[in-house]
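Fold this complex.
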Amino acid sequence: MRPAWFPVVLVVALAAALTFLTLPIVAIFVDSSPAQLVDALGERGALEALWLSLRTTAMALAIILIVGTPAAYLLATRSFRGKAVVVTLVELPLVLPPAVAGIALLAAVGPSGILGGAVEAAGIELALTTAGVVVALTFVASPFYVRQAMAAFAAVDRTLLDASRTLGASEARSFGRVMIPNAMPGLAAGTALALGRALGEFGATLMFAGSFQGITQTVPLAIYDRFSTEFDSALALSAVLVAVSAAILLSVKFVQGSEALGGAAS
Amino acid sequence: MLRVEVHTRLGELELDVALEVRAGECLALAGPSGAGKTSVLRVASGLLHPDSGRVECDGETWLDTERGIDVPPEGRRCGYVFQEYALFPHLTAWQNVAYPLRGMRRSDRRERAQALLERFGIGGLSDARPRTLSGGERQRVAVARVLARRPGVLLLDEPLSALDARTRAGAARELESVLREVEVPALLVTHDFAEAARLGDRVGVVDAGRVVQDGTATELAATPRSAFVADFTGAVVLTGTAHSGRNGLTHVELDGGGRVTSTDRGEGSVAVSVYPWEIAIEPESEAAHGSAQNRLVAEVLSVTTVGNRVRLGLAAPQPIAAEITQASARALDLRTGTRVVATWKAAATRLVTM
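Structure:
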């Protein structure tokens, strides 16, 4: 009998991938004792960075959901001339190096950018401010959500929308009552991706908003700041970021799992 | 009264249909897929915007391209039953039925929905999700849901085609009783002529975007104006009561008189079907001969030339259509009122238990 070599290849590949992907993360926790972790968090700068990260990510996410959801719905349900171009433009930040994203934001809405005057006239200061962090996060994270949301809306059977309309619901009501609940697993996945991306954002924030403790220094920037001088503190902050990210991923899996089992709550 | 006039291009198809359905009447549009039947329903409900057209229901104008009127679907009071029923998967059965009920308390909505589900005998399934329901149950939820809307018109797209053969007979009976009860015009589309004949008071045969002929199913089968209609109407369907006989044969006492034999098995109330081209015509005087077991005395109602063949509409006394060559039609000297014997083999006789 010939040996079953193919299953062996599959298992070896998975084992290699798993080791490579988890080893660094495990190392973070092995290298930092719980006592160190608590100590590091007790430091004022660290807590400040964590609070700033959560605040800016939440704000960026709110903007992404409020603007991105209807935009994705439009792209998924209408066909128009030049739609492919629009979709590509929306997805472009996905492939942009973060540093380029930061430069691009400076060139657009920075003090000497093409819209800098208008932004200043409106009384908004972006560069080197917390608001600037939110702009940077929104810019790099929104395509992750919009892409997923588009796919999720496109996958909903259009007849459901037709049925809702003929049953007396306007398009806006049908969007809220039928499209959103049925696209929910995809929307949740997109939200998680955008959240993860925003929480870990480094390059664009550094270029556009700078790294000022308490104002623009989010956790990734704080980690980088401590990396050469206080490695233990950097390690502890990293551990916190891993824990938060893992919690997000798990909660999305949980939401999707319960969707698959029982359907969305009405 | 529902009035629909459409003229529009749909890709390769040129849809050009004008029809009227009276309150309490069901018009069945029957035709092959791609003929544009569903598009008529979509235009009537406002889901499809034609190049030009008019839709009126009970004096309300829903669409008039000339006057620039186009009421959105939610304003049209259409009870549209979709082909695969389009139940909302994220809602339970009662929530689906309650979906069109607006501006009332949740408990009232639930009560109304429950009452409608009870009416269709599925009150016990009100908390079930659509994916756990059988095809027949889904159809009942879908019909209950459109009735909750108190529609001004019923639009039914292939209402039976998503069901398996066993469920279909029961579902057809139920749909018949709904159609009898609701006092609104009903427009039904199907690719199956037998279904159209059963559910429609009138049948319009649709081909390539046009209604090529309309009338009662019997009229269409007896006097088709084109070979297409003749072929499309397919088998003659007779109803009767079956009981098994010797040698595995089944005898059917036809409603209204007459008796036929089939090689198929069946018991109780059945539909007997036979293709018009399986039926031979003999003068009434001739004695029985040959292998044909089925002999029904009939009166010729109509003689229509369809291509190179002649289609006969017969009363036996249930309506039968037969197709014979032009030569035999001449030899038999057939005309309206002539009494003949229609004969066919027991092996060409299909039975469907109803």
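Residues 160 and 168 of chain B are 6 Å apart (CA to CA).
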